[in-house]
Design a protein that fits this description.
With 129 residues, this protein is mainly alpha-helical. It is built from 6 helices and 2 strands, in the order H-H-H-E-E-H-H-H.
Length: 129
């Protein structure tokens, strides 16, 4: 899956968490993209089994989509925490975590997770985020 599609899944996940529902316009607004771009991405995500969309209506994550979105969200927050521990500003950490979450290996993520847990003074379990 491309980093762009991961951003769409994460946006849907966050909108559902915040508002209970996700619609094309809200996704477009959140990601600063056009509605046709959202529709194209939703087609791809639907074909891959990550989302379901009511015709001209709400977008729902499938179980697979929910699991994937939750993991992307966890990675994002872990990387943001890591960057902030290093002294990066919150704004920069947010932007760069969004880029990094798509490219780092699971091995690197495990090492970062262990480091962040040590810096925070406790153990982070893998599902925490």
């Amino acid at each position: 899956m491309t980093g762009s599609l991961e951003d769409y899944i994460e946006a849907i996940y966050l909108l559902v968490e915040e508002r209970g529902v996700a619609r094309v316009k809200e996704i477009a607004d959140k990601l600063h993209v056009s509605k046709p771009s959202v529709i194209q991405a939703l087609r791809q995500l639907s074909a891959q089994g990550f989302v379901e969309q009511e015709r001209y209506g709400y977008i729902h994550l499938t179980d697979q989509g929910e699991k994937t979105a939750s993991e992307i969200f966890r990675r994002h927050h872990l990387l943001k925490d890591f960057l902030k521990i290093l002294g990066v500003s919150s704004e920069t950490a947010e932007k760069e975590a969004c880029q990094m979450e798509h490219i780092l290996s699971e091995e690197t993520m495990r090492v970062i997770e262990k480091y962040v847990a040590q810096q925070k003074g406790g153990d982070h379990d893998r599902d925490a985020g």
